[in-house]
From TrEMBL:
<protein>
    <submittedName>
        <fullName>VOC family protein</fullName>
    </submittedName>
</protein>
<dbReference type="GO" id="GO:0046872">
    <property type="term" value="F:metal ion binding"/>
</dbReference>
<dbReference type="GO" id="GO:0004493">
    <property type="term" value="F:methylmalonyl-CoA epimerase activity"/>
</dbReference>
<dbReference type="GO" id="GO:0046491">
    <property type="term" value="P:L-methylmalonyl-CoA metabolic process"/>
</dbReference>
<keyword id="KW-0479">Metal-binding</keyword>
<dbReference type="Pfam" id="PF13669">
    <property type="entry name" value="Glyoxalase_4"/>
</dbReference>
<feature type="domain" description="VOC">
    <location>
        <begin position="14"/>
        <end position="158"/>
    </location>
</feature>
<dbReference type="InterPro" id="IPR029068">
    <property type="entry name" value="Glyas_Bleomycin-R_OHBP_Dase"/>
</dbReference>
<dbReference type="InterPro" id="IPR051785">
    <property type="entry name" value="MMCE/EMCE_epimerase"/>
</dbReference>
<dbReference type="InterPro" id="IPR037523">
    <property type="entry name" value="VOC_core"/>
</dbReference>
Length: 181
């Protein structure tokens, strides 16, 4: 198991979770549980402060209120948490991948075509048709899709691995290498 690179964070063990803010926690929970198939593990909140705790610790407006946060597990890989905030200076536009701060969350699936049909069957907007990668990522297929609130997500699949793996001294972490247990 690889460890941290010299000069990196002492004790680095891996990515524990990814967090993002959604406009409606109930809608997001239904989507991630009922459409994606994640499990809601627990929730916390609300959090607010009359002082500057929110600004000091989270770099948000001091009067921001985190209504609630929820942690999810989606099979293997990092957990994720979603937040619903109220803040006087809140921006509500979703960043695109080309915007600074743009992002997406990718889900590994064993059958990309079946997963795409599942999404379409739930009325999810799939962006184009699956793309076959080339170069170092040859062996991979992927497609982007949008949540009901416009956040970008991706499906990826490479059941026989990617081309870069043949001579790579370090391999990317891959969900299909995890032994359930």
């Amino acid at each position: 198991m690889p460890g941290p690179r010299p000069g990196g964070l002492p004790g680095l063990a891996g990515v524990e979770h990814v967090g993002f803010t959604v406009p409606d926690l109930e809608e997001a929970t239904r989507f991630f549980v009922d459409v994606i198939g994640c499990e809601l593990v627990y929730s916390l909140g609300p959090f607010r402060s009359d002082g500057d705790w929110m600004a000091e610790h989270l770099d948000v407006h001091p009067r921001a209120v985190m209504r609630e946060l929820r942690f999810f597990r989606c099979a293997n890989g990092p957990n994720f948490e979603i937040f619903e905030y109220e803040a006087p200076d809140q921006r509500t536009a979703q960043p695109r991948n080309s915007d600074v701060g743009g992002h997406h969350l990718a889900f590994y699936v064993t059958d990309l075509d079946a997963a795409v049909e599942h999404l379409r069957g739930h009325g999810v907007r799939v962006l184009g048709e699956p793309t076959t990668s080339s170069g170092a990522s040859a062996g991979q297929r992927w497609v982007y899709f949008l949540t009901p609130w416009g956040m970008q997500l991706e499906l990826v699949s490479y059941p026989d691995g990617k081309a870069y793996e043949e001579n790579a001294p370090v391999l990317l972490w891959q969900p299909q290498r995890v032994v359930p247990g």
